[in-house]
Structures are given as structure tokens and as C-alpha cells.
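Anyone have C-alpha cells for p-loop containing nucleoside triphosphate hydrolase protein? Sequence:
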Amino acid sequence: VMGPTGCGKSSFISALAPGAAAVGHKLVSCTSEVHLVQTTIDGVPCVLIDTPGFDDTTNSDTNTLRLIANYLELAYKDGQLLNGIVYFHRITDNRVGGVTAKNMRMFRSLCGDSALKNVVLCTTMWDIVNTRDGEQREAELKGDFWKSMITAGSNVVRHDGTPESAVDIVRPLLRTKGVAVQLQKELANGVPLSDTASGAQLNEELLKLQEVHRKEMQALRTEM
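Reply: yep, here.
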């Protein structure tokens, strides 16, 4: 599972495997590293993988990417493929920008186009949003930000926070064929992490941040 901090990843895993994963607090992420949980769903043994977001409170984005890359590389070398990747998005977010957009871009570059058929785009927190507003935001996601991913085979689902909903979301993934994401393929071919699509995306994000800081410093000097 992937997505921004506080979008419900750990709660989702807790719903699938009660007591096996800690639930994040409002501000401090409990997922500072890749966390694996073994459970059984419909009699099928499976491993749930909880990952930190690229806005984690205890890790830099660079370290977050390194943590995820290290796990994915080891899993790929061991012959372990991903049956599915669930990406979480808070339907309470009234626009896609800032860290939310950054997480989406990082996720897309990490997966690559060939793995998108194994991706589930999951919206959460429907219980604390006006249904009409939520449906409008969902339509915007489908028609814009997620459109190309949906065209490539990704599915969009809603999670209502219950164990039954969590199982319904995961159940179809148990029948899919395992897939290697783009980052795994790149690392297996000897591409340095910084030169992978995810690394390049991260470098682009850092350059944008540097430019913002440069402009802020210039404005401050002007005021002084």
C-alpha cells in the first residue's frame, strides 16, 4: 500500500489483519520504514506491505525512496512479485496539489506503465465528507489526474473504513498475476537509484523546492 501520510494506509492494513499494524496519528507517521504484515484472506496466505509516504514526518523524501527501493530490490531478487498495489487518496482533499500531487507523481514513476493494471486507486475518509462534494472530487480524479492510469488498467474503489470493505478491495488482487514495478526492473538492470525514473522525479521535486527557497530569500533580501 502507498500514499501520503495520514491517508489511511496503516488503518487499512489493521482492518485486514487486526492488531498486526499500528495506526498512524494525525501528525506523526507511524510508518517510518517499510513494514510487512503476514495474514490470510479467504484462505490465501499473503503479505501486506505498508510504506511511508513522500511527506513522512521522520524521513526525507530521499531516504523514503531509498527505503522503498531497498525492499523492492530484495523482493525482486528473491522472486517475490507484487499481486497488487493499492494507492490511497483522501477524498477530503479538495484539490490535488502540493504534497498530494508529489506523492502521485512519485507513485506513477515508481510503478511504470506496465504495472498499472495491478494498481487500485483507493479513496478514503468518505465518512467525513459531504457525499456530493466527494463524488465531484472523485469525478475530477477519474477525468483528469487518474485518467491515464485508468486507461492503462488501474481500478478506482472507495474504502469505507470497515474490514469488509478492505477485504473486498484486496480480494480481486489475490487472483492477479504478480508484476514487477518499473523501479525493480531498473535496479535489477544496474541503474543507480538516482538515475531511475523515481530518482529523476525526486530530483525534479528537489529542484522545484530549491527554486521556491531562492525566490523566498530574494524577497526577504528586498524587504530588508
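The first strand starts at residue 35 and ends at 41.
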